Amino acid sequence: NAGVTQTPKFRILKIGQSMTLQCTQDMNHNYMYWYRQDPGMGLKLIYYSVGAGITDKGEVPNGYNVSRSTTEDFPLRLELAAPSQTSVYFCASSFGGAEDEQYFGPGTRLTVT
Amino acid sequence: QQQVKQSPQSLIVQKGGISIINCAYENTAFDYFPWYQQFPGKGPALLIAIRPDVSEKKEGRFTISFNKSAKQFSLHIMDSQPGDSATYFCAASAGRGQNFVFGPGTRLSVLP
């Protein structure tokens, strides 16, 4: 099993550009999550999904969109990138909700200039 | 009230010493408390977790101590090793179906 894979590993965007961060898991997990990690701030939940076709907002959803058309994939879309979106983005998955171990991908480091 | 506070922000320990990281919370609905370990350039990974019906859980050199009345819990790393150098996050959730709230993290450095 590859676990949770994320692409790209690094990306530099100009202000106003858009991009999609890809996330795929091969563990047949129901739950998937997107977090952002800022220095000294821990992990903040952006969006999550409890299954294909179902998504919901987390703590910091503004400026982002997600979709979940399959169990395996959970892409994160950034529209009109802003410097405040400079961060490291982690995708994670778990079989159930909280209290089931979350498996994290390696992260995407995004810089918006 | 959804916050989890974590201290210290960074910690330097000599090899063989004890590393202690503390977390505190306000939400009494929290009932599951995991610790995640993150090495540089990697995603976090579950290290150990505890529920409030026990005061202590030990797995190898790692121990969680839990004080329900004080709403505090801590991670103790015995015989700390340079390979333990990582960032440690405490987290909390309020039951199945609820999402985690993460602490801000503690960067641990264990000197050889």
What features would you highlight for this structure?
heterodimer, A: 113 residues, mainly beta, Immunoglobulin-like, seven-stranded mixed β-sheet, four-stranded antiparallel β-sheet, 11 strands, 0% helix, B: 112 residues, six-stranded mixed β-sheet, five-stranded antiparallel β-sheet, globular
Describe the overall structure.
With 113 residues, chain A is mainly beta. Chain A has a single domain (4-103), classed as Sandwich (Immunoglobulin-like). In chain A, 0% of the residues lie in helices and 50% in strands. In chain A, strands 2, 4, 5, 6, 9, 10 and 11 form a seven-stranded mixed beta sheet that branches. A four-stranded antiparallel beta sheet of chain A has the order 1-3-8-7, with no helix packed on it. Chain A starts with a strand and ends with a strand. Chain B has one domain (4-111): Immunoglobulins (Immunoglobulin-like, Sandwich), CATH 2.60.40. The termini of chain B are far apart. Chains A and B meet through strand 5 and strand 10 of A and loops of B.
Blueprint of the fold:
The complex is a heterodimer of chains A (113) and B (112).
Chain A: E1 4-7, E2 10-13, E3 19-25, E4 31-37, E5 43-51, E6 54-57, E7 64-66, E8 76-78, E9 87-94, E10 103-104, E11 108-112
Parallel strand pairs in A: 2-11
Antiparallel strand pairs in A: 1-3, 3-8, 4-5, 4-9, 5-6, 7-8, 9-10, 9-11
Chain B: E1 4-7, E2 10-14, E3 19-25, E4 33-38, E5 45-50, E6 56-59, E7 62-67, E8 72-77, E9 86-92, E10 101-102, E11 106-111
Parallel strand pairs in B: 2-11
Antiparallel strand pairs in B: 1-3, 3-8, 4-5, 4-9, 6-7, 7-8, 9-10, 9-11
